[in-house]
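Tutorial sheet, problem 5. The two components below are modelled jointly, 596 residues in total.
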Amino acid sequence: MTLSVAFRHAFPGFSLDVSFEAPKGVTALFGRSGSGKTTVVNAVAGLLRPDSGRIALDETVLLDSAGGIFLPPHRRRLGYVFQEGRLFPHMTVRQNLRYGQWFARAIQRMDFGRVVDLLGLGALLDRRPSLLSGGEKQRVAIGRALLSAPAMLLMDEPLAALDAPRKAEILPWLERLRDETHLPILYVSHALPEVARLATTIVLLEGGRVLRSGPVAEILSDPDVAPALGIREAGALLTARIAAQEPDGLTRLDSSAGPLWLPKIARPVGAKVRVRIAAQDVMLARTRPEGISALNVLPVTIAALRSDEGASALVQLSAGEDRILARITRRSLATLQLAEGDRLFAVVKSVSVADESVSLAEP
Amino acid sequence: MGMTDWLSPADWQAVRLSLRVAIWATLVSLPLGVLVAWLLARKEFWGKSLLNGLVHLPLILPPVVTGYLLLLTFGHRGWAGGILEQFGIVFAFRWTGAALACGVMAFPLMVRAIRLSIEAVDPKLEEASATLGARPILVFLTVTLPLILPGIIAGAILAFAKAMGEFGATITFVSNIPGETQTLPSAIYSLLQVPGGNAQAARLVGISIAIAMLALLMSEWLARAVARRIAAA
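Model answer (structure tokens):
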């Protein structure tokens, strides 16, 4: 199932002109606040009628300004999870969950009990939204959207209003959602770690335009995109399989570039994970370093180089089938005389990879 | 001493008539009040300011002017009165006319209370309802209406109290006929015109104050209930 979006819309002082495709999986609409992310989602949901354009979900045309088609929101069957939950205050959790289900009774797909289990809502059913924590509210909002039998989910920064522990609580539910429901999800975010964990595809928005879009691993490892994402946050994704839980508290992973040891990852052996490695945590060496404390030394090849105006440079490295980024000083770049095609060793300290940088890869 | 001893049959008649007039005025204007309040709170359309002005006019105009305009429109020789009479609906010098006058005079208060409660409902909840598959009418019935219900009741109580006390427009439009159009205020007015009527008038005045006070308290309490309900989101 593919969502194709192409539209223009002018607000006083701000205009949007976007065009992108969201294939199956999680498509992250990423950009700073004010880049037009929410406007795009509202146009897809039908809460905003763009000046012109076409939006379609496979064969279903949601908007076609040339053909005079504008499907109202209640006929689009898109489950929208809003930033602030927007639960109905006069209904219990159960009634909130049943609300969209009632309108979709002719096309039932998701079982009530299954959604309640999937999101851990069993104990909350008879409560009023005012008595829920922020994280609980968002889980109910996700459940309510799922039960409306949507053809697709729209999520507008569903974690933005939550503090870090609540975020950590919901992220695994979102991964499960992605992997167990097979619903395409359009996910708005301005938090790179979230995107790195969940997204299959990234659409990068800046000032109402699409800067780049493509598979998440490709975009995140592109040194030319890094300035738009924020140089400090730059980092690429490595996919790996959990090979062993070792007695000294480390987890061994097998990646296509070689073995990696990371602080304990609480996942079963065999699980496929994606690990986000921040560019500033990667060190480069001409020869395989010996007698150092860092455990992870991967043989890599320079694929691309980019120096910016500051003191640093970004190096894109081929590591097996994946690509990672290293951020080094321009002085090191000159001293080591690095050039595309050079074979190097990338050094990654195990402890620099935080637990939240590891997530389940799509099966 | 029972109620019937304390109040003369004529007083009692005026109280009963006032209650009937106020209840009808409130119930019949309520659906229209909700519709107008919703239009003013949620919709942008040509002539919105005009509608807003028209609704509030009875609040500003001297009641005698409103009564006179009603007489010109709904009297025997009025254009609307003439048409309605063919369907057996007569307002002139009937209690129904008193109800119409009271309804018109109370309408601004009713619309204002309901409009405020609609404006307090976050439109984002209505959007959420639409994305979950609800048609606009069902959005209104399942989300907006339950959330503004206390506001509607508060508006209705205010309108009821206003209708109980309406005098100027009523007496101008349908006169002061005992048993037909003599409401509580008209009865008080008549009693004050005759020597020795003061004691009797005072009792009716007491009843008026009690009804008005009770209505205000209930409306206040319900306004707080709506605020609580919406703040719970």
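Marking note: The first helix of chain B runs from residue 3 to 6. Full credit if you identified this.
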